[in-house]
Amino acid sequence: MSMLETSRTVGLTNDALTRRERVVLAELAEDVTLEEIATRLFVTRNTVKSQVRSVYRKIGASTRAEAVAWAIEHGIR
């Protein structure tokens, strides 16, 4: 983890994510597409994409794998 990545996630708690963002993040840990997540959550794929971007920004992730690792580390999965 680089210094930039460390500075982005230091002090960030699960509370920084909305309930829906936590649900979407947990869904990302499954082997499913964004379309499948959207169907499960009764929203559009674009809504899920928007929520995923927000999660990535808040936790400092740039890939799904980084986001899933963060979720596991923070007990969201």
UniProtKB/TrEMBL annotation:
Keywords: DNA-binding, Transcription, Transcription regulation. The keyword DNA-binding applies. Residues 10-75 form the HTH luxR-type domain. One of its GO terms (biological process) is regulation of DNA-templated transcription. Gene3D superfamilies: Winged helix-like DNA-binding domain superfamily/Winged helix DNA-binding domain. One of its GO terms (molecular function) is DNA binding. SUPFAM superfamilies: C-terminal effector domain of the bipartite response regulators. Pfam families: GerE. This is HTH luxR-type domain-containing protein. It comes from Cellulomonas terrae.
